[in-house]
Amino acid sequence: MKNTIKLMRISLGIIFLWYGILKFFPSLSPAEELAIKTIDIMFFGLINETISIKLLALLEVGIGLGFLSGYYTKIVTIIFLGHMVCTFAPLFILPELSFTHAPYAFTLVGQYIVKNIVFILVGIIIYQNELTKEIR
């Protein structure tokens, strides 16, 4: 099980590093427009879109590097889980992008968001493993 959890952590690290790096380059990330719109609504238009996408890129690259390195995994996982909760915001604030028929028929964007349930489960398993390490 120990190796399985390590593989989960490394897998999330690769995915987040990759997703994050793409956001540094305009129009490369398929999630760029969705992320910019979501951040704009959540922060009432107070953050410039160029800055918001770069900050998100930094966050995702940081999470990716944190998972890949294996250092401070508990803290990285808490940040990751917070980020994952926020990824569900478009389902509520941009339903026209998330559903063809709300609440049961997802668009490709909606499917992209809902797949994060698996990421969250993996994050919870990693976090529980870190808690178990502290008890030993």
Give a written overview of the molecule.
The protein has 136 residues and is mainly alpha-helical. It has one domain (2-135). The chain has helices at residues 2-23, 32-42, 49-69, 73-86, 89-93, 95-98, 108-114, 116-135; strands at 99-101, 105-106. It has a two-stranded antiparallel ribbon with strand order 1-2. A hairpin with a 3-residue loop joins strand 1 and strand 2 (105-106). The longest helix has 22 residues, at 2-23. It is globular and about 50 Å long. The mean pLDDT is 96.
Low-confidence stretches: none
Strand content: under 5%
The biggest sheet, with number of strands, parallel, antiparallel or mixed sense and barrel status, is: 2 strands, antiparallel
- Beta-strand segment tally: 2
How big is the Rg? 16 Å
Overall 3D form: globular
DSSP helical segment count? 8
- Say what oligomer this is: single chain
Write the element-wise H/E pattern from the N-terminal end onward: HHHHHHEEHH
* Separation of the first and last Cα atoms: 16 Å
Structural category is mainly alpha
Number of self-contained structural domains = 1
The proportion of residues forming helix, as a percent range, comes to: over 70%
Major sheet strand order: 1-2
Q: What is the mean pLDDT?
A: 96
Brief digest:
This is Membrane protein. Helix content is 76%, strand content 4%.
Write the layout of secondary structure elements.
Elements: H1 2-23, H2 32-42, H3 49-69, H4 73-86, H5 89-93, H6 95-98, E1 99-101, E2 105-106, H7 108-114, H8 116-135
